[in-house]
Amino acid sequence: MDKERRSFVLFHSNDIHSHLEQAAKIATVIDLEREKRASDEMLILDIGDHMDRMRVETEGSIGAVNVHILNHIGYEAIVLGNNEGLTYTPEQMEQVYTDQATFRIIGSNIREMASGEVPAWMVPYEILHKGDLRIGLIGVTAAFTDFYELLGWHVLQPYDVIAELTAELRQQVDVLIVMSHLGIKHDRAIAERIPGIDLILGGHTHHLFEEAEKIGDTYICAAGKFGSHLGRIELEFNSDSRRYDVTRAVAISLEEVPPDPGILSIIDQYGAIARQNLSKVVARLDHMLTISEEKESPLANLLAAALKAWTGAGIGLTNTGQLLDALEAGDITLEMLHRICPSPINPCVLNLTGAQLLQSLEESLLPEFQQRAIRGFGFRGRVLGTIAVDGLEIYYDVEQPPYERIQEVIVTGTGDRLQKEEVYQVATLDMFTFGVGYMALKEGIDRRYYLPEFIRDLLAWALCQESLLSTCPTEHWHLLK
């Protein structure tokens, strides 16, 4: 190789979702590469959703375990995914990243609502110098505007931001990279619409490119989900011509890679910290609260009642598959609530017609809905399950055909029969508004989301409300003989 030309390797990960043992495998691969290369011949980036509060070490350390692992591996920059940006408050993120991170957090399309500025612990873009190679980094996250604004963020539309920064940075760098937690559809659109981008490193939709896709002059890469793969891009750079060639861009499987002992030690260390932090007792139960995926039960009814009472809505509604286990009598700790309700799901209130409610209730009686497996949308359970309610009395006949089984629904607050044309205020889960689960719930209007509260926070509150505890064993579904 000519002395003016040198090789360079870029590693990228995305959507780890706190599969921390897989991060330990990533460390092994990178350590092996580091034995062969100088620090100015390597770069390691993460494209968001490294944190997931389903993982007890992440939950109990407010994400510190993830930051420690990213530091240990040697990441130089990350972009926030929705699992960081929407499941932690700005204050929590500022604390964990400012106090501990040794890498850059790139927030090209994130602004504080109060100031209109990029927060001090982020940068709007970055130019890294690797020897004489200049690498520009733009980092964007999905614009879930309604949710981010409730936390005090203004998230700009990413296409405009990318176009503006590409124009600004193109002449200043040799390689321009967009770190995109937007999803495959948007990555392809950006490559088609915005010239001047060399690499788009993707995430959010958990797509895997075992070999890079090329659109025009732009390479699109992504490494799947949960750390099953690690993106690896090899470049050759000519310092005289200031030109580079991508010689190989792949996602390598980590299936046979052994985990790095140092990362495993970090996981163990934070496991002990997390369990100590989550040992706080939030309630004491005199009797067991059972749960069932196939039918209503006291614990699911308690969550439905908590949604209704906490929001002030007329009806509370949840899916029974949201809760993974019963609560035994005795002290209830934060860790117990996290174990049975790990999903980072927020409450919401919306308006539904009686017809939309009735369709959802009918669907919840069908096995194909009860056993429906759901991936993503904040759901961390096994299957959808059926519906538990508060504020309704439902009378049904299983001998009737599907969608004709419910014979009568009484609205508890008024004592009136549910009317198909009437509009009802319903407290439920944000995931239903994304078009997952019971289909009619996504049609609800006048939605109001509640952040940063998770439904397990409402459950903790409800466990201290004697009025809710005393009535949650009461059945709301009545089988007609």
Shape: elongated
Specify Rg, calculated over alpha carbons.
25 Å
**Counted beta strands:** 24
Distance between the termini: 83 Å
Overall pLDDT, averaged? 95
The largest sheet, given as strand count, sense and whether it forms a barrel, is: 6 strands, mixed
Strand content: 25-35%
How large is the count of helical segments? 15
Sheet with the most strands: spatial strand order: 4-3-2-1-13-14
Approximately how much helix is present in the residues?
25-40%
**Low-confidence stretches at least 5 residues in length (pLDDT < 50)?**
none
Q: What structural class is derived from the secondary structure elements?
A: alpha/beta
Short description:
The chain is an alpha/beta fold and 481 residues long. The chain has helices at 20-34, 56-61, 64-73, 82-85, 90-100, 145-150, 158-169, 184-193, 261-277, 298-311, 334-340, 354-363, 367-370, 455-462, 466-471; strands at residues 5-13, 42-46, 77-79, 104-106, 110-112, 126-130, 133-141, 153-155, 175-181, 199-202, 213-215, 218-221, 229-238, 243-253, 281-285, 315-319, 330-333, 347-353, 387-390, 392-396, 406-411, 423-429, 445-449, 477-479.
Features:
six-stranded mixed β-sheet, 481 residues
List the helices and strands and how they pair.
Elements: E1 5-13, H1 20-34, E2 42-46, H2 56-61, H3 64-73, E3 77-79, H4 82-85, H5 90-100, E4 104-106, E5 110-112, E6 126-130, E7 133-141, H6 145-150, E8 153-155, H7 158-169, E9 175-181, H8 184-193, E10 199-202, E11 213-215, E12 218-221, E13 229-238, E14 243-253, H9 261-277, E15 281-285, H10 298-311, E16 315-319, E17 330-333, H11 334-340, E18 347-353, H12 354-363, H13 367-370, E19 387-390, E20 392-396, E21 406-411, E22 423-429, E23 445-449, H14 455-462, H15 466-471, E24 477-479
Parallel strand pairs: 1-2, 2-3, 3-4, 7-9, 9-10, 10-12, 16-22, 20-24
Antiparallel strand pairs: 1-13, 5-8, 6-7, 11-12, 13-14, 15-17, 16-19, 18-22, 18-23, 20-21
Helix pairs in contact: 1-3, 1-9, 3-9, 10-14
